[in-house]
Amino acid sequence: MRSLYSIFVLTIFALFEVPAYAADAPVSALDPSNDKSSQHVSPLPLAEEGSKVEVMSELDPYYSDVGINIPLTEKPIPTIRSTSEQVIYSELIQGSLIPRYMLVEASVYPMPLLGTYLKTNQPNFYGQGRLGHYSSINVIDSATAGFQEPWAVSAFFGNIAKIVRPGEDRVGSNIGYTGYLVSAGTKQIKDNEMIDDHWLEVEWKIKGKVDYPDEKLSWSFRVGGKFHDNQNIANEIYLNLFRSNLNTHLPFLSWANNSTLDMKLFFSEASSRLVRQEYVVGKKYPKMGWRYTPTLDIGFIWSSPEEYSGILRTTDTNTLTLVFRPSVAF
After folding, report:
1. I want to staple 321 with a disulfide (CB 3.0 to 4.6 A). Which of 58, 288, 301, 308 is the partner?
2. Most confident of 16-25, 26-35, 96-105, 252-261
3. Domains identified in the chain, total number
4. Which domain, by its residues, includes 68?
């Protein structure tokens, strides 16, 4: 059993780079806050005619999906030629009220699913993740925290733009999105335990990804609400700000560069009180010539007992979960 636990810990340390939020669920167009530079993403329809239906997919330990991108008009996909984040965000927002693309997606979250499986079917192994007999910190909790659903189906309605650095012709997967996202699922994860719940999530977001050999940038700014059929789970209104930057030409010690910031605030729809907050910060150590980048994300998740009621409220005090994710980005 100890050897199995060692393998699990080593696997966590070897995972590809994953943003800590991680989750909200839904890098694909629908993913709310993922910066997965290591993942494979099938190309989006970048042809100028703008009328091509395209299948896209990605595989990642925390977020895997398959989706279909469907143009709603014959207009070509616009191109943003700038390295300025302010210019990119501004141009993405312009004209975003009228959707021109639809993306339908099915997603699953392997690591959160593994956490629920281990706690239910391997309780002794799961318990060995605790740091000390009197500690409330569990390594498996820290590695899988931040996802409250095991899977989802989603539909995105909005606009897409290609992003190109001045002087470069390669586009690749450098895409920005702005629009509306509707997601739904049938389960909720609480403390790595599966709960029956039909939920619906609605949000407006601006997100995107720029990926060059020497520079990577991803962002997701969103506001929305999540509503539950299970009356013991509070409906929530939330705000999420996520940005991740990697640049081999910039110094490691610069606080704003080669770093990750992920902040989520959840408020009860009924009382407007804060019921959950997540803060994760990370640093990357890039070096020219390396095919990988060591990273470290740390943070915490604070939860109020008001997030649950009835038989699902297992405590009357606030809880704090540590997030600790050393990883390697390729």
Report:
1. 301
2. 96-105
3. 1
4. 2-329
